[in-house]
Structures are given as structure tokens and as C-alpha cells.
Write a structure and sequence with these properties.
By secondary structure, the chain is α/β, with parallel strands linked by helices. It has helices at residues 18-28, 56-69, 139-149, 177-185, 188-207; strands at 11-15, 31-32, 40-43, 47-51, 77-85, 94-97, 99-100, 103-104, 118-121, 133-136, 158-166. The longest helix has 20 residues, at 188-207. The chain is globular and about 40 Å long.
């Protein structure tokens, strides 16, 4: 069974792919915990990272299992992270969405103002790219499961960051695990800065 959530955990990061998670695991020296079928949990001082597998069902179930195994359901901040396709952004760019489906979510204070981006989750990868829309396969299921499992649900405490993996110039056929890890690792500094900003924000609130 998954180990109980530590009281000091301030951020839960959820990914679909292990390749999306490995650079974060390496940067923060997260330690692997006991595994349940289809779910991998890594834990550090300030954060938990959950790798749920590809697709809406696996993401939804992984989040649900995590919260129903942990001691606490009041984790203050949650991040959905992974790769996505879109029309206008270049390959390898780190972007932050302010909506998942038709629901508003938060943006870290450290992220500069930019064009609003919405995530749309699909059942299958698509090359029918749209401007200002990010295609993935799990974010909407993540949001649905988070909103059902967190007490005192606050949309502004939920975040979604994506690294652009495909666009009209470079399609989905070139994506593999190695490429995903390289794309994420190239963004680990700006991603880490945003994560640390989120954690510090919670610490500042707790100390008031």
C-alpha cells in the first residue's frame, strides 16, 4: 500500500509518463515508495510525485487511490504536468494553462503573464492542432478526481504545466520516451523555480 501522506507535504505533482517524471525525481532526489498496480509514488521533503499511466481512466484512478490511502486529504497545492501538442508554440517550450476544459485553475506567481491557454483532453492523440489550446489525454480526468478528493477544493491552488512535444511542424510520430525526458529535462530550471515558488507561498501563509 502507498505510505501515508507526510504532514509537511505541500505539493502533489501528477504525471502520466515516467519519462515526464524522471527529471523532477532527479532534481529533488525523490525516493520511490511502495507501488500499487499502475501507480508509482515518489516522495521528497516538500512534495509527492505520482506517475499514473497514460489515459484518463488511469489518471483518475491513480489520484483517487492516492488520496484514499493517505492520512490527509488537505494537501494545499496540486500540479498536473506532462507533454502536450498545440498549434502556435514551439517544440520544447514550457507553458502554463489557466483552464482545463471549461474550468479555471491557478497560475504560479512566478509565471509571467501570457496568452491564456486551455487544456483539452482527448481519447487519442490528434494532429488537428488549435491556437491557444493544448492537447493532452489526462488533465481533465486529473481535475475531476482532484476536485472529488480534496476537502475545501480551491481551483486557484491547482496548476497545469505542459512541455510542448508536437505541433504542425513536428508531429506525434517523433515522440518517444527518450525525447520526452530530454524535453522535460531542458525545462527543469524554470519548472523548478515555479514549483519552489508554490511551496514558498504556502510556507509564507503558514508562518503568518
Amino acid at each position: 500500500a502507498l505510505q501515508p501522506l507526510k504532514p509537511m507535504t505541500r505539493l502533489l505533482i501528477s504525471t502520466a509518463l515516467m519519462a515526464e517524471a524522471v527529471p523532477i525525481i532527479d532534481r529533488y532526489r525523490l525516493r520511490k515508495q511502495a507501488k500499487q498496480p499502475g501507480v508509482h509514488l515518489f516522495r521528497g521533503r516538500d512534495m509527492d510525485l505520482l506517475v499514473c499511466g497514460i489515459g484518463a481512466e488511469r489518471m483518475y484512478d491513480g489520484i483517487h487511490r492516492y488520496f484514499h490511502t493517505a492520512d490527509s486529504r488537505d494537501i494545499p497545492y496540486c500540479l498536473n504536468f506532462g507533454i502536450a501538442g498545440t498549434r502556435l508554440h514551439p517544440i520544447g517550450e514550457l507553458v502554463w494553462a489557466n483552464r482545463i476544459g471549461d474550468r479555471q485553475i491557478g497560475l504560479p506567481d512566478s509565471v509571467p503573464d501570457s496568452r491564456p491557454l486551455r487544456v483539452r483532453s482527448l481519447d487519442q492523440p490528434s494532429t488537428q492542432y488549435q491556437a491557444d489550446v493544448l492537447f493532452d489525454m489526462e488533465a481533465e480526468a486529473w481535475l475531476a478526481s482532484i476536485s472529488e478528493n480534496i476537502q475545501q477544493f480551491q481551483p486557484e491552488h491547482l496548476f497545469c504545466a505542459k512541455v510542448i512535444s508536437d505541433n504542425p511542424s513536428s508531429g506525434i510520430q517523433g515522440i518517444d520516451k527518450k525525447r520526452v525526458e530530454v524535453l522535460v529535462r531542458s525545462n527543469i530550471r524554470p519548472l523548478g523555480a515555479a514549483l519552489e515558488n508554490i511551496i514558498k507561498k504556502h510556507e509564507d501563509k503558514s508562518n503568518k
